Automatic annotation (TrEMBL):
Coiled coil: none annotated. Residues 117-128 have a biased composition (Low complexity). It comes from the Eukaryota. It comes from Lithocarpus litseifolius. PROSITE patterns: MYB_LIKE. Residues 106-145 are annotated as: Disordered. Residues 129-145 have a biased composition (Acidic residues). It holds the Pfam family Myb_DNA-bind_4. This is Myb-like domain-containing protein. Residues 16-80 form the Myb-like domain.
Length: 272
């Protein structure tokens, strides 16, 4: 009697994000996001981020412990929500990923303005916090593809209400307190996202302008080519007409010379 087979309905719960995986995810996302000029990542870009995270953690991307592209995208969304929440607090944030997320959106800070690094002290508690943040990752991943764009628009709409702050203000004036920079950064995240949308629109307008110029040049070239062909046909017609005229004159000269020869012979034999 064989042993009973496991139930097909049982599925393994995804492993929580470790501190190392989260750090490599933020760094890989920053590299890819900057390479796209802070534009929105596509599915293929997220797949590249997932492969990069697995490689830096020493995993094989096909292993169950490696994170998928959808899990990476969902984790970044959670980290951004947590970062916006931490940025709005008046006190200094003790969240271990705050410096990395701050560097992600602001760029690297001066050494004198960087907050103390608490990553080593809180590495054990990070796994517990990540388990709370990853609870939603066990839901239906197929629905995630459909609601992702709607959720992003809703978050962007809520964030567009505060006043826009110059993102270079904190770097230009190093004497300002760091806490104020953290409070004002939620507004600057919106500026960067809107700048990404504006860059996409400018690129699309630039492509349209290039296509229009190319079409105009092709139209001018076609007009010049047609004009040259018409002139060539007119020259061929003139050449053919001149050749026919010369041929007619040659035939007339031949007939005239033959007529004169016959007249001369006739006068010679007709004389007594």
């Amino acid at each position: 009697m064989g042993s009973p087979s496991p139930s097909p309905s049982t599925t393994s719960k995804p492993l929580p994000w470790t501190h190392e995986e989260t750090v490599h995810l933020i760094q890989a996302y920053q590299e890819k996001w900057y390479s796209l000029k802070r534009g929105q990542l596509k599915a293929s870009n997220w797949e590249e981020v997932a492969v990069t995270v697995s490689a830096r953690c020493g995993y094989d991307h096909s292993e169950p412990s490696s994170k998928s592209a959808l899990q990476c995208r969902h984790k970044i969304e959670k980290l951004r929500q947590r970062y916006r929440s931490e940025s709005q607090q008046r006190r200094h944030s003790s969240w271990p990923y705050f410096p990395l997320m701050d560097s992600l959106h602001r760029g690297p800070l001066p050494i004198s303005a960087r907050p103390p690094d608490n990553n080593n002290n809180n590495s054990n508690s990070n796994v517990i916090n990540d388990e709370d943040e990853d609870e939603d990752d066990n839901g239906n991943e197929s629905d995630e593809e459909n609601i992702y764009s709607i959720r992003s628009r809703s978050i962007n709409y809520l964030l567009r209400k505060p006043t826009i702050v110059n993102r270079f203000a904190g770097i230009a004036d190093a004497g300002k307190p760091i806490r104020k920079r953290h409070r004002d950064f939620a507004d600057e995240v919106v500026v960067e996202e809107e700048n990404g949308d504006d860059d996409d629109e400018e690129e699309e307008k630039g492509r349209d302008a290039v296509v229009s110029e190319l079409a105009a040049e092709i139209r001018k070239f076609a007009e010049r080519f047609i004009g040259m062909e018409n002139r060539k046909m007119e020259m061929m017609k003139d050449t053919e007409r001149f050749r026919m005229e010369m041929e007619n004159k040659r035939m007339e000269l031949i007939l005239d010379s033959q007529k004169r020869i016959l007249d001369s012979i006739h006068r010679t034999f007709a004389s007594p």
